[in-house]
Amino acid sequence: MEKLLVITGTNASGKSGLGIELARKYGAEVVSADSRQVFTGLDLGSGKVTPEEMKGVRHHLLDVAEPNDFFSLSDYQRLAYEAIDDILSRQKKAFLVGGTGLYVNSVVDGYNLSESAPDPEIRKQVEEKTLDELIEMLKEHNPAALERVDLKNKRRVERAVEKALAGDKEENPSEKRYETFVIGVTWPREVLYERIHERLDRRLDQGMIDEVVKLREAGATDEFLYKLGLEYRYILMYLRGEFASFDDFYETLFKEIRHLAKEQMTWFRKRKDIHWIDMTGDPVAEASRYIEAFYGL
């Protein structure tokens, strides 16, 4: 079984930068595991690395879909497998790097996903429901799915309800495709919150609000932007005048990003195979020891 290194963790943890440094050191290529970075034009708001920040490391699964496109977990897994297999076929190492837990799990655990196309009528019915209504529908039509779906992510719950209503209720057993080693990246809570604060300020200064303005002008729908959550949702609401002031918008967004970091840690703690590294020390050296043991270097 071919080997795949995984670097995951909370937002603002520095996993992308660490992944790049390690990829440069070991001649690897990076496969992104981020549900918003797959879309073109979603750059500052998604924290997408720039060509300069890549430092010559080839990245995959960035900008593979257009705004408003439906992009499923199955789409991600298929493209990730293709990218990883291509990298490995060229006798290079593949590093899966990102913080979208479902994306990481789908590749690491080898989810056996349905390729069925969505039914437009069912989709319309589902999208009109609130999150609470969707969870109730899932309880009624496929209660087993409650154990494997992130119930705080409306898009994921919508997809699960769509599948249940379409009669696709079977959960096929997972089939691991790669031997994996998972490195986890985070910081002490107060340090992480300060990093989130600094990153939010920096991206706002770089033009994150203008990015959303341009996305709307280019045809990205408000519905699409709202469903992306966090930066895109709250900037959209700010542009529509739904906050009393910029400060009100800023504080709300900052709190939501912090909340996501807590949710990410809760999600990742479910995995018992993550090797957490100390980012306050020498993370490159610590991760390198794991990598060299994993690959027998």
Word description of this protein:
The chain has helices at 15-26, 51-54, 73-89, 101-108, 120-127, 131-141, 154-165, 189-206, 208-217, 222-228, 230-239, 246-269, 283-295, and strands at 3-9, 28-32, 59-60, 93-97, 179-186, 274-278. Helix content is 52%, strand content 11%. With 297 residues, the chain is α/β, with parallel strands linked by helices. The two termini are 17 Å apart. β2 (28-32), α2 and β3 (59-60) form a beta-alpha-beta unit. Among the domains are: 117-167, no CATH class; 189-262, Helix Hairpins, CATH 1.10.287. The protein is globular, with a radius of gyration of 19 Å.
In short:
This protein is α/β, with parallel strands linked by helices and 297 residues long. The chain has 13 helices and six strands.
The counted number of beta strands is 6
Q: Can you count the helices? A: 13
Spatial strand arrangement across the major sheet = 3-2-4-1-5-6
The end-to-end distance, rounded to whole angstroms, is 17 Å
Could you please say which CATH topology of one domain applies here? Helix Hairpins
Q: Report the portion of residues in β strands.
A: 5-15%
Helical residues, percent? 40-55%
The helix/strand series, from N terminus to C terminus, equals: EHEHEHEHHHHEHHHHHEH
Key features?
297 residues; alpha/beta; Helix Hairpins; 6 strands
Q: Could you give the topology of this structure?
A:
Blueprint: E1 3-9, H1 15-26, E2 28-32, H2 51-54, E3 59-60, H3 73-89, E4 93-97, H4 101-108, H5 120-127, H6 131-141, H7 154-165, E5 179-186, H8 189-206, H9 208-217, H10 222-228, H11 230-239, H12 246-269, E6 274-278, H13 283-295
Helix pairs in contact: 3-4, 5-7, 6-7, 9-11, 10-11, 11-12
